Amino acid sequence: MKVTINVDCTPEEARVFLGLPDVQPMQRALMSQLQDRISANLAAMDPDTLVKTWMPLGMQNLEQWQRFFWSHMMRSRGSGEEGGGES
Fold it and tell me: Residue ranges per domain, the chain?
């Protein structure tokens, strides 16, 4: 014997009937926090912020590296002066 029962009710009515807890307030709070975190992370992804994060001193840092390499190149050539020519 096969018996089929169809119950027409809303999810809320089924939850109350089965005695399940109402998690909608917690879900709304968590979704709000998630949305805030995603928005904050997206704001940190703008190009200006990324460049400032990757290069904390900006162009000054790049200039320091250039001076460092230039001074080492000049020392390796045997010249102690930046503008000195070969002898």
Answer: 10-45, 46-78
Rounded CA separation 30/81 (Å): 64
∠33-38-40 over CA atoms, to 5°? 95
> CB of 70 within 8 A of CB of 82?
yes
Q: Are 43 and 50 in contact (CB under 8 A)?
A: no
Alpha helices in the chain (DSSP H): 11-18, 24-43, 47-54, 59-77
pLDDT digits (tens, 9 = 90+) for 41-71: 887 777 777 777 776 666 666 777 788 888 8
40 Cβ partners below 8 Å, 6+ apart? none
For the chain, give the percent of residues with pLDDT over 70: 82
